[in-house]
């Protein structure tokens, strides 16, 4: 009986010692920085046994192994230690600054959470090859290649990059998915994914392979010097033959999931030559034809005619502006209408770039339209070429005469005698119609009593205004919302002023959109993720199409940091922002 009491006491003592310790629950990573083609081990470690373990969502990762559980209990110098670990093996699905979220465990009826741990996922890295790795054989049979059509293009000269997936003939690919796409930060780009994959026969390092073309991308470099093209990374499920055979002597295959990445490609972008470069060069690179036409050469005053400026050919049509016509000041000229018809294929951009001006003459006469010049750089001839239009004359047959021009025309003729009219001073009155002014007494008048009572009437008004001002100052949330709304209007006006200046326009536009959201949704800048914005607008019954347009505006502001934009596109984004903000105002 005494022995049993001692055993019970011993277990109670052990339990007391264990629970007297502070509960520690942490997350340990095998590495804090890895490539998108590498894997990561996460251990959730606790120093006391618990229940109801809940793993985080592992956003940005896929779980390729786990959970596995290990438990350890030790006695060292009379002191006990306990450790319980839940382990996972993760593979990143995207790159960027990610986070391993909080796991939960219940100890003694209380919930404990592990602290979040940041992880940096970079572009694909070179992984050391291990012949004993089960995926090594698969990686030796599957290769992703990026082929560049030009290694040394000129600035704004088109070239293509083609991504091909090579697979050995004895290997079969079950499926693949994209892990990481190149951002093409220093290029204007347009990609064309293959709608139907066609299998080709080819060579890879002298051996026979099959391959498919995954994507073709047209690039226009926007900077000079050595520019890197980021790799494309894929997760590929393959079946590869092994050295084992079945009872019938057939080779056994093994399935594996591997990550393949195209190597980083570097192009050396040459600057356009300074020799022969005109001051008014707009940045056009390619082969073009330029002409200026009008639909009327003879008309009456008040009628309108269309003046068209057209550039047609192959080159960076979306990346330069047409020249502006220099018309006489007596012609009323409206903003041009854009009529671009540009298509992009593997050869680059081609088509028509067109500005149509509506012009209305106000007076009778002949109006010369000076010749217009368009200069472009031709990569084939490696020189600048200039096309000049012919001078056009617009004749206005019927209408009023321009008085200012008529006066100007008579300045050089001999002076004419001026005959004064008899009634030219008729507007001056020679007789005064004056009335005597009667002076009234001010003291005890109506005005006197009104001015005397006015200070007493203003006292309660001043008290009310002071209380309202204090209430206004104490309304921290309201003031923040009003300030954000005011800033949104201010930055929207700033964006309008900077139409044509891409960097300043999109910075002002992005600030306007952010401050508008702060005012309407009562959120801070740190909470502005696209998913959260979409969810909040949906909760406030904002139409889905309006929400999609708002998110697309935010994306336009982000894309503008990497790709050039024309004045027409900026005007369209501005009009779209005004329309979307107005729509959200009405729906809220």
Description:
Keywords: Membrane, Transmembrane, Transmembrane helix. InterPro entries: BatD. This is BatD protein. The chain crosses the membrane at residues 447-465. The protein is α+β, with helices and mostly antiparallel strands and 588 residues long. The protein folds into four domains: 2-122, Immunoglobulin-like (Sandwich); 136-269; 286-396, Immunoglobulin-like, CATH 2.60.40; 476-587, Up-down Bundle (Four Helix Bundle (Hemerythrin (Met), subunit A)), CATH 1.20.120. 26% of the residues lie in helices and 38% in strands. The strands form nine sheets. Strands 21, 23, 24, 25, 26 and 27 form a six-stranded antiparallel β-sheet that branches. Helix 6 packs antiparallel against helix 8 and helix 7 runs antiparallel to helix 8 (544-559). The longest helix has 29 residues, at 446-474. The chain is flat. The protein starts with a helix and ends with a helix. The model is unreliable at 1-5, 7-20, 406-421 and 423-427 (pLDDT under 50).
Briefly characterize the structure.
This protein is of the alpha+beta class.
Q: Helices and strands: which structural class?
A: alpha+beta
Uncertain ranges:
1-5, 7-20, 406-421, 423-427
Number of E-state strands: 31
Mean pLDDT: 80
**Total helical elements:** 9
Computed over alpha carbons, the radius of gyration is: 39 Å
Protein name: BatD protein
InterPro entries: BatD (IPR025738)
Pfam family, one: BatD
Organism: Dokdonia donghaensis DSW-1
